[in-house]
Every structure is written in C-alpha cells, then in structure tokens.
Amino acid sequence: MKIQKYIGFTMMAVALHTATSCSDWKDWNDVQSDSNMAATQTLWENIAEKPELANFKQILEHTGMQELFSANKYYTVWAPTLTSAQRDSILNLDSAVIVDQFINNHIAEYNHQATGILAERIHTLNEKSYNFSGENGIYQFNDVNIVEKNIPSTNGTIHILQGKSPFLPNAYQNIWMVSNMDSIANYFKKYELTRLDESKSVAGPMVNGKQTYIDSVMITYNSMSNAINAKLDSEDSLYTFIMPNDEAYNKLYKKIASLYTYVDGTKAQDVANSTSATSYTLLTAPSIDMSYLKDSLIRRQIVNHLVYSHNDKYNAKFFDGIPYTYKGVGEPEDTIYSTYRGKFSEPDKILDPAHITETIKLSNGRAVVVDSLMFKPWETFNVQRTVSGLNPCRVLRANTSYIVLYNLDGSPLYIDGDIVTYLRAEPQSSSGKPEVDYYLRNVLSGTYRFYAVVAPGEAGDSTTTPKPNWLNFTLNYYNPQKGNVADYEFKNSNFVSGSEIITYSERESDKGKEVRTAIKDVDFFNDVNKIDTLYLGEFTFPCCYVGIGDYSPNIKIKSSDSFSTLSSRGHTAAFDRTIRIASIILRPVEYDDYLKKDEE
C-alpha cells in the first residue's frame, strides 16, 4: 500500500492530498551513462571521505540511508556540517523524523549546479520547496551559505552547507507543532480523512465480487481545510495563517456562545401557508442535539476566516510586506479577503503586533500566532441580516408587482452597488389594507436594530403626487418563558402616545377644514421625497434559529389600524395604502453603534 506521512517533532501529523508509494523512491531518474564523467566516486564515498561531514555521515548510517547514496539514482545533496551537539540532538529523534525532516530535507532529485546567477525553487525529497540562489560564486540553500559547491559524484552532486537546512513545515503540518494550540489542532484533526485513489492504484483480481489492489494509493486530506478553500498542505501555495492560541480561541468561543442560545421545542408561525390574517398554524422544530449543534457552529465560525492567500489580488500588497498604503485621498487600501471569501477592513488591526506572540516561517507562507482574534463581529460571526422586499412569504389583499427605481436620466438607481428594486403591494379595493409578511431567516439570540427601506410613490406619474405610507410593523417570535409564539409591535420613537396628526377633509362640505386625529405610538410614516430608511426599534431574540430547519420569526407590515378612523371621516386621500418595501434590515447593535460613531 502506498501512503505518505509527515511526522512532527512532537507528534505525527498526516499530510493532506499526498499520494505515495510503497517503494521508497521513484523508479525514474536513473543515472545516465554520461553523467558527471569527471566523477570517480559515488555520493556516499565522497561524503565518507570528507571530515567536515563526519557527523552527517553518522546520522546517515544510523538510519540506514547510506544505501540511497550508493544507488543508481541521481541526486543533489546539500550536505550540512554539524557540531557534535547538533548531531546528538538529531540522533535522539525518532528515525522516521530524522529521515523526513532532516535527511530528505537536504536532498533533491536530478543535478542542480551552483553556477552563474541562480534563482531556483528546489523540491526536496520530503516534498518541501526551498530557494537555491546566489551569484558571483556565493550561493545559499534555504538561506544557509554553501561553503563548497559542485562536488561531482557518479550518481549526483554535493554542495556542502555551513550548517543544516532548517525544516519548514507547511501551514497544515504547523498546526501540530505549536504549543498552546490544542483547541484549533483538535478541531482540524476531527476532519482528517483517508480514501483510496483508484485511478493511481494498481488493480488486482476480483475477490468475491470485490475489486482488490496489488498496489493501493491512499490519499489523506482534511475536509475542513477544503471547506474554507485553503490548501494548507500545498507547497505551491502561499498563505498567512492566523492561529489563535488556546486563550484567544476560548475567549472568542465564549463571546460567540451567547448568540447561539437554543431552546428545545422552538415554535414558529406557518405564515406562508396560512390563508387567514389572524389565524396561523404553529410549527414546532424537531428535537435535536442542541449542545452539539451550538458547539459545531461556534467552532466553524472561529476557523472560517483564519487563512489568507498571498496570491489573492486583494491581499497582495498587504501580505507581500509592502507598507500599508493608500489608493488615494480618503481611500485606504484597507480590505483583504480570507480564503472563505470573507471581506475584512483594517487588516492592520487584525494583525496588530500587540497581539502577535509568534511569527513562524512556513514552507508555504507564514503562521501568525495571536493571543486575541481582533475581527469585527459584524464581519465574521454576527453579521447584518438583510431581507429583500422582493421575497415576501405572504401578501394579503393586494396585487403585487416588482418595480425598479430609475434616475431622471433613465438609468437604474443603485444603492451600495445594488439596483433598487422593491415590492409594490397595491390594495385590491379602495378601502383595502394590504398586509405583507417576511420570514427573518437565521437570526441569532442577540439584539438587533430593525430598519425598513420604503420607496416613495412611482416617479413619472404626473397625475399623482406621492403620498406617505402610514405603516405598522409587528414582529412574531418564539417566547421561551411563555412556551409559545408572541407578538411585538415596534413603536415609533418620533411620536408619543396620544399624539395627533393634522389632515385636511376631502369631503365637499368640509373642504379646507383641519382634522386632528389621534394616532397610536406604534405607527410609522415615510418621507415621499426619498427612498426612506425607517428606524423601527431594537429587539432581542431570546433564542437562536440557525440550523434548526425552516422555522423562523416573521415580521408583518400593514397599513395602520388608524386608517379606519380616517376612512370614516373621508380623509384617506392624505395617505397611500400601497405598500412599497425595498428591504428589511436587522443590524446587530454593535455594528449599528460603529456606523453611527463613524458618521460623527
């Protein structure tokens, strides 16, 4: 069976995506008949006669690797000079570790000569990639100076190094090599899987109807690494991996946990399938392992945005080490993207040196160990929820259409990069009052500030002067204390109970007369001169709805009940019954406070 493992100095860590062979070395790369015609000795014979390589020779003999250097294969060896203390320290390691992280870390296939201007990327036998560079007779391998170069052998070339080439783990291997990192290491370990690669395996005979294999190739991979689009084991990639130590991990875990309060038996209204405006079938979420669900979602939120590709064009300037620069006046180069495509502002704060405890050079980038994850919550685990006005779960007593707003020049109107389109719910009769319901999916057990984006009357209708809406917003949610659903009416903070509004009679006998009408303190009015964002108020959901299926709170929008008073007096012409909703916004309070502070 073919399988390859990378073994850490402190524990074994299986590499990802590596298909490996039962035979120790590849079957191609045989020495050619004209190779190193001036050489008279093998690699092993040359190493054995060099006194400065005596300690290196002892390590090769200890592991039985001298046979490799006498074989009919062609290798380049960057042979290290070692002190006795260095030799003894290496010999105290497990033999498999010595071979993988020391011996194979100094050997590559084929002939790599140190001549001229050199800038090679060497792929060593342990599948690492290191720089082989220099000029004017001065060369380095993996930043270690070469003191004697191009020693010819019948089966390869030797360069003598001034010390050993440091083994650099890749981003995946490094997870298990850093102390105080159990939380993240254990999490990734859960998702490590091995499967048979049939395309690379050698098939044998069928036995009892099942395919057997003479030589099987097993691939070990990590499904979580794949899920966040990070090839952490790839030596051809380049990443910055932000690694929270246990202190940072547990601190963020506790912060997120309050937003994932689950209640068994959570109920919700089946609004979409209800034909009555006042009677609803109640749905009860099935019993699930709430603790397991909560723990899984929290841990996934922590790891989603830890990895950043240097090859991503949005990240290049920041992660390539170029100083923090600006595009232009007032436009800082302040946005980076994680491999999971999370967008983050102020990367210099995410990588605040005050919270970096260690920076580790990797074979495919760098690991940054932090004692605190400095992400803004609204950019990671507590994001704004926006419900499009185009997706109601139910509309009653109305004819619906979808309207795109246009500028005066006829071009579509954009806000924040999106064309402004809204739901138009027009009453089916002159006295009808439409109702529009929206599900609020995936809300957390946290506090949100609610906004409704309301469009004015349709532009371009010269016969109609836009009139404001007079709207009521009612939230339906599950109340664990009552064990049932409950309603919450948002109150207009601009009015107090018992306030009055002034309208003018439209009846012939009362034309021009002012009529004062008391309104409830739960009604809202929009400004007809703009796309108006109404602040509805603040609400704290007592339980979380993420991951429990199609069970959600909902919000109902309807014309105010006070319309009945105006209708009896003939004053309905002062307000528009047609509801025009572009979106409902649920903004976490921490984010809302940040935006308001930023506007000051």
Topology:
Elements: E1 6-7, E2 12-13, H1 43-48, H2 54-63, E3 75-80, H3 84-91, H4 95-103, E4 107-109, E5 118-123, E6 129-135, E7 138-141, E8 144-153, E9 156-161, H5 182-189, E10 192-196, E11 202-207, E12 210-215, E13 218-222, H6 223-227, E14 239-244, H7 246-257, E15 267-269, E16 282-284, H8 290-303, E17 307-309, H9 316-319, E18 326-328, E19 331-332, E20 335-337, E21 343-345, H10 347-350, E22 356-362, E23 365-370, E24 385-388, E25 394-396, E26 398-404, E27 414-415, E28 418-419, E29 421-427, E30 435-439, E31 447-454, E32 470-479, E33 484-489, E34 500-504, E35 514-518, E36 523-525, E37 532-540, E38 554-559, H11 563-569, E39 579-588, H12 589-599
Parallel strand pairs: 3-9, 14-23
Antiparallel strand pairs: 1-2, 3-4, 5-6, 6-7, 7-8, 8-9, 10-13, 11-12, 14-17, 15-16, 18-19, 20-21, 22-23, 24-39, 25-30, 26-29, 27-28, 29-39, 30-38, 31-37, 31-39, 32-33, 32-36, 32-38, 34-35
Helix pairs in contact: 2-3, 2-4, 7-8
Description:
The chain is built from 12 helices and 39 strands. By secondary structure, the protein is α+β, with helices and mostly antiparallel strands. It has 3 domains: 31-161, FAS1 domain (Roll), CATH 2.30.180; 240-376, no CATH class; 385-599, Jelly Rolls (Sandwich), CATH 2.60.120.260. A 7-stranded mixed beta sheet has the order 4-3-9-8-7-6-5. Strands 24, 26, 29, 31, 37 and 39 form a 6-stranded antiparallel beta sheet that branches. A hairpin with a 2-residue loop joins strand 7 and strand 8. Helix 2 runs parallel beside helix 3 (84-91), helix 2 (54-63) crosses helix 4 (95-103) and helix 7 crosses helix 8 (290-303). Residues 1-37 and 322-332 have low confidence and may be disordered.
